[in-house]
Amino acid sequence: MRTYDFHGSIEISEIDREIRHICHIESTAFKLLTGYGSSSGISRSKNAAMKSLAKIKREGLIKDYFSGDVLSELHSNTNSYEYQMKSKYKQRLKNDKDFGNDGIIFVFIK
User: How many helices and strands, by DSSP H and E, does the chain display?
Assistant: First the structure.
């Protein structure tokens, strides 16, 4: 699964356009490296990417997505979208070195 670096290398205003471009290049899945906000506690690129991916999913361009940190958080709401995606793709991703990485977003194409 190919990784695209969005961690400080792409302007926030360009993230939506870049993700859409990647969706047309990739055929099955890809990862976005966004960082997790270690210095400030908030990753602007991660927030922008998650917002964009939600919109792109509603438009039907991607099948699923979830942030790596969903794996390290405790979930009391097992009906949440991210918890369901974690469960759905866990077997497929368990050997991926980035599985559980807070600074990664996994994206699955239709």
Answer: 3, 4
Plot region of 60 (φ>0 → left; ψ -120 to 50 → alpha; else → beta):
left
Q: Which two tokens stand for residue 64?
A: 């699923």
Put simply, whether the predicted model's pTM sits higher than 0.70 gets the answer yes
How many other CB atoms are found less than 10 A from the CB of residue 45? 23
State phi, psi for 87 to the nearest 5 degrees: -65, -40
Q: State how far the Cα of 96 lies from the Cα of 25, in Å rounded to an integer.
A: 21
Q: Find out whether 46 and 34 touch, Cβ atoms under 8 Å.
A: yes
Q: Which two tokens stand for residue 97?
A: 């070195």
30-68 pLDDT, tens digit per residue, is 999 997 766 656 778 889 999 999 999 999 999 999 888
Boundaries of every domain in the chain: 2-109
Residues 61-89 as b or e (16 or more Cβ within 10 Å = b): ebebbbbbbbbeeeeeeeeeebbebbeeb
Tell me the pairing of strands 104-109 and 62-67: antiparallel
